[in-house]
């Protein structure tokens, strides 16, 4: 469903060019969920943005549902891939009601039955009619993220791209959103590509996990292998160790200034 | 516990609003010794407000009430802004979440640390500079001379947070309040910053109040944990035994966390019991 073949993404040009993703090859079969983990600046969000067509990729091929895509995409291609961002407050227009936010993609894509779609999308993400004419600031963080998910789903995409969808939420709300995403994926046969810094969140939703560092995909593994510590790359091991919580002995000899920038 | 650095009894913070008073913190009591005490809770639980109340940073129109709020032998109740300013930095210090917003962008980090030293210890420029360099070394910055002259935008988040810790500890406070000190950092950097915090707090015999939403982090780092909900402390337990917590809220939070190596089709969602809102005391 999603195939990236030797994709390189570069920001800027000339001597100041920064290569954010280097020679990345990755595929997500239809109906599967793949997660990307890595530190900030590892290029994981850049991969999502390239798949969504928000940024051009320099070299390599991106294929979605059998069609090779570029940054310029047809309306149908855009409809097929939708994205949910980390901070729902930043990604929802503050001066538009939920109704307007959900109505816009319907209008842009000239879909029929706009009214019915909005009602259905709200119901699907567990929001009631009373939320329809509210503004984002009148909703809680979890409800806002539900609106962002509804907006993505209203176009009936086949691919859902999730960029840290629960990082800005409390633990109890995170559980609700993760359950919602798991159910939607099952009901609609969605293909997911998700980015998070939280290994446990990724492992909860995704069968396969890619580990990125410094623009490189260094390892592709499974949630089960991660749990039983059967990983090959040093960086993955390090992630796993820190994920288990604070351990005095594990950081004594860490290379502290490696992160200086 | 050896000795009490901070005693808090029945602390309440109230903000007036159009719909009556909002009680952000209700009857919170705890004692902080030379230990690492964690406060966990979700957003709006009052954990940060508790920290700010101790620092004297609850501004008008917020009201602080307490039966006891004592730092060593100093009564913090009704202390003037001037009085607080004397305490802050020297006896009690605070590290916030994002070093980007806590550091002065137009002053080199070394100067900022030295300034703290000069202000609190009335030292000369030379002494302050030497102390700042030593402090940078104490937070494991490899080339203190170079970093001293750098500006906040030139350093990484992890280094920024270490600079903050250096600045907060240079005047030798008894207590450090760290409010989500590593939440803006990558996991690997997080562990390093925590290790430095741990090392300094131990070697100087300080008390640390770590405020965080991250249950894993608090339970693995701290000695004791207070669990806050709706402004109250619902439960206090030994950090290592958080898994055996008794309160349904704490248990609900722990259950709602996805765990590596345990694939559950559905995460149990927290059912909030209105009874948790009722006054405990």
Features of the shown structure:
heterodimer, A: about 260 residues, alpha/beta, 6-stranded mixed β-sheet, 4-stranded antiparallel β-sheet, 11 helices, about 40% helix, globular, disordered C terminus, B: about 280 residues, about 20% strand
Q: Would you give an account of this structure?
A:
The complex is a heterodimer of chains A (261) and B (281). By secondary structure, chain A is an alpha/beta fold. Chain A has helices spanning 44-52, 75-80, 88-91, 98-108, 114-124, 141-153, 171-188, 199-205, 223-227, 234-243, 248-251, and strands at 2-11, 18-28, 33-37, 59-64, 67-69, 81-84, 159-163, 191-195, 208-213, 216-222. In chain A, strand 4 (59-64) and strand 5 (67-69) form a beta hairpin. Chain A is globular and about 50 Å long. Chain A starts with a strand and ends in a 10-residue tail after the last helix. Residues 253-261 of chain A have low confidence and may be disordered. Chain B is an alpha/beta fold. Chain B contains 10 helices and 11 strands. In chain B, the strands form 2 sheets. Chain B has a 6-stranded mixed β-sheet with strand order 7-8-9-3-10-11, with helices on both faces. In chain B, strands 1, 2, 4, 5 and 6 form a 5-stranded antiparallel β-sheet that branches. Chain B is globular. Chain A binds chain B through residues 39-40, 141, 170-172, 174-176, 178-179, 182, 197, 199-201, 203-204, 223-224, 226-228, 238-240, 242-248, 250-252, 254, 256-257, 259-261, and chain B through 42-43, 140-143, 155-156, 158-159, 186-192, 194-195, 198, 213, 215-217, 219-221, 252-253, 256-270.
């Amino acid at each position: 469903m999603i195939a990236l073949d030797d994709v390189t993404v570069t920001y800027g040009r000339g001597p100041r060019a920064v290569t954010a993703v280097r020679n990345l090859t990755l595929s997500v079969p239809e109906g599967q969920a793949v997660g990307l983990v890595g530190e900030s600046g590892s290029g994981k969000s850049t991969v999502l943005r390239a798949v969504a067509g928000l940024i051009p990729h320099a070299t390599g091929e991106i294929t979605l549902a059998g069609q090779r895509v570029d940054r310029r995409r047809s309306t149908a291609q855009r409809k097929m891939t939708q994205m949910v961002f980390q901070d729902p407050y930043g990604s929802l227009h503050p001066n538009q009601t939920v109704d307007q936010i959900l109505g816009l993609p319907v209008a842009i894509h000239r879909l029929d039955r706009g009214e019915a779609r909005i009602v259905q999308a709200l119901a699907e993400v567990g929001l009631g009619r009373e939320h329809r004419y509210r503004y984002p600031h009148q909703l809680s963080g979890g409800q806002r993220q539900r609106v962002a998910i509804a907006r993505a789903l209203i176009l009936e995409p086949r691919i859902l791209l999730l960029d840290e969808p629960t990082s800005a939420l409390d633990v109890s709300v995170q559980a609700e959103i993760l359950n919602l995403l798991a159910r939607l994926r099952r009901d609609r046969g969605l293909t997911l590509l998700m980015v998070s810094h939280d290994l446990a969140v990724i492992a909860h939703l995704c069968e396969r996990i890619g580990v990125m560092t410094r623009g490189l995909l260094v390892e592709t593994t499974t949630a089960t292998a991660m749990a039983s510590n059967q990983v090959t790359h040093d960086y993955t091991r390090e992630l796993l160790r820190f994920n288990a919580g604070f351990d005095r002995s594990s950081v004594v000899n860490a290379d502290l200034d490696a992160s200086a920038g | 516990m050896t000795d009490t650095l901070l005693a808090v009894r029945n602390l309440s913070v109230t903000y007036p609003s159009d719909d009556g008073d909002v009680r952000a913190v209700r009857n919170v009591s705890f004692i902080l010794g030379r230990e690492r005490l964690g406060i966990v809770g979700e957003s709006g639980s009052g954990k940060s407000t508790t920290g700010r109340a101790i620092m004297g940073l609850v501004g008008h129109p917020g009201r602080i009430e307490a039966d006891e709020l004592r730092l060593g032998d100093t009564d913090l109740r009704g202390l003037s802004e001037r009085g607080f300013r004397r305490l802050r930095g020297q006896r009690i210090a605070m590290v916030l979440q994002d070093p980007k917003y806590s550091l002065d962008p137009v002053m080199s980090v070394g100067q900022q640390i030295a300034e703290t030293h000069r202000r609190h210890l009335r030292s000369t420029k030379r002494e302050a500079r030497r102390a700042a360099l030593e402090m940078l070394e104490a937070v494991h910055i490899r080339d203190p001379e170079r970093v001293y002259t750098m500006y906040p935008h030139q350093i990484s988040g992890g280094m920024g947070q270490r600079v903050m810790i250096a600045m907060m500890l240079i005047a030798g406070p008894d207590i450090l309040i760290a409010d989500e000190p590593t939440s803006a950092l990558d996991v690997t950097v997080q562990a390093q910053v925590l290790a430095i915090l741990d090392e300094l707090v131990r070697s100087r015999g300080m008390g640390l109040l770590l405020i965080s939403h991250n249950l894993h982090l608090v339970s693995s780092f701290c000695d004791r944990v207070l669990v806050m909900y709706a402004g109250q402390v619902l439960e206090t337990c030994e950090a290592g035994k958080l898994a055996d917590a008794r309160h349904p809220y704490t248990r609900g939070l722990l259950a709602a966390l996805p765990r590596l190596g345990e694939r559950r089709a559905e995460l149990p969602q927290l059912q909030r019991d209105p009874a948790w809102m009722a006054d405990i005391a």
